[in-house]
Amino acid sequence: MLSKDRLLLSMDHKEPDHVPLTYRWIIRQFGKDRTWRDQFERAEMELDLGLDPMLQLAYAPGWKLNPDVNVTLWRDPSVAGEQYPLLTKEYHTEKGVLKQVVRQTPDWPHGDFVPIWSDHMIPRSRTKKYLIENMRDVEAFGSLFNEPKEKEQKQFLEEAETVKKFADKHSVLVENMWTLQMGDVVAWTCGVENMISQCFKNPELIHRFLDMLLEWNITYLEKITEPGVADMVSYRAWYENVSFWPPRVYKTFLFPRVKKLVEVAHRLGVKFCYVISIGIIPLMGFLKELDIDVLYGVDPVEDKLGGVDLQRIKNEGGDDICFWGGVNSYVTLTTGTKQKIEAETAQAVRILGPDGGFILSAIDSLDKHTPWRNIEHMIKVWRKVGKYPLASA
């Protein structure tokens, strides 16, 4: 069976010849004895191992700053009352000035630069002034980004053609990864505490901001699918779990907008993958109602929130959602014993594999420090236990 067909069958809750094994190599660019120059060489290595790689169709024009926006950045090395230097960045837009101020702590990873958003800016200990704090900021944010120009879209279409040629030749699935995002953008620009408090104190602000983000996401989704190459889009929702959004707040603010985006994706003919790795059980009812195709991030080690277990996930959502994951990367695969790797891999296949609807992986991704012998052992176990019909052990 061809790799792409195997993945699509699994997403459609049908049993292929064996459970697919698809890794993310986000921060690792090498295998056992080879380093790859690009994703095509990486995919070839994975195919040689019998794995099911996905090619990435990156959307470079996405979230690109409007050229009419004037940006200023400066560093204050000594500010009264502040232990660390302050970095200030301003975006001068046609609808006002957006300003963010961060503390350059010893663990600040961006040097003298301030990215528009970063996980490192979310804590209050690092940020003195968030990008979005009132409705004026939201309106200014609306003119911060630029819709893709014809030249940019043409370059994207050329890249898509290159990806398509390889994907067609090798029957590999094509994914657009993480261009789409809403809750994560709100967390980055507002800070988590402000994000949730505003849902109660000033809900109009969050509704307006999310509506604006939804509009951008739909625009990007239409552009991504234009060349007809992508088989799936992955929506990043790391900050959309119940650690940040209580279920009733999630239902009010995020649910209707994500559902709309899923509907657009399906209308455009692509699968929708929702990326979340903790707090899955409390959101399972919503996730099923969203009609997502794939849930990436099922992790039996990290996700202990809500007393999660693989069997419960399978029971509650296995008829509607294809689960992607099942094994922990940073603990089990990086530091675990062979016995632990074998037990966790076999457990994931045994519980999540029956009747299809499962893609095996190590969550979140393969780290550069993960020993190849452990990756190889997981592959060995998968080859033993992952063939349909699945063994009862």
Keywords:
about 15% strand; 2 domains; four-stranded antiparallel β-sheet; TIM Barrel; single chain; alpha/beta; about 40% helix; about 400 residues
Could you explain the architecture of this structure?
The chain has helices spanning 3-11, 39-48, 135-141, 150-170, 183-190, 192-201, 203-225, 247-253, 255-267, 280-290, 310-317, 329-335, 338-352, 372-385, and strands at 54-56, 70-76, 86-93, 96-103, 127-129, 173-180, 232-236, 271-275, 294-298, 322-328, 358-363. The protein is an alpha/beta fold and 393 residues long. It has 2 domains: 3-62 and 146-385, TIM Barrel, CATH 3.20.20; 70-132, no CATH class. Strands 1-6-7-8-9-10-11 form a 7-stranded parallel beta sheet. Helix 6 packs across helix 7 (203-225). The longest helix has 23 residues, at 203-225. The two termini are 25 Å apart.
Quote the distance from N terminus to C terminus.
25 Å
The geometry reads as globular
Widest β-sheet, arrangement of strands: 1-6-7-8-9-10-11
What is the CATH level 1 assignment of the largest domain? Answer: Alpha Beta
Largest sheet data: 7 strands, parallel
Number of strands: 11
Distinct helical segment count: 14
The helical percent reads 40-55%
As a percent range, the share of strand residues is 15-25%
Spell the H/E element sequence: HHEEEEEHHEHHHEHHEHEHEHHEH
Protein structure class: alpha/beta
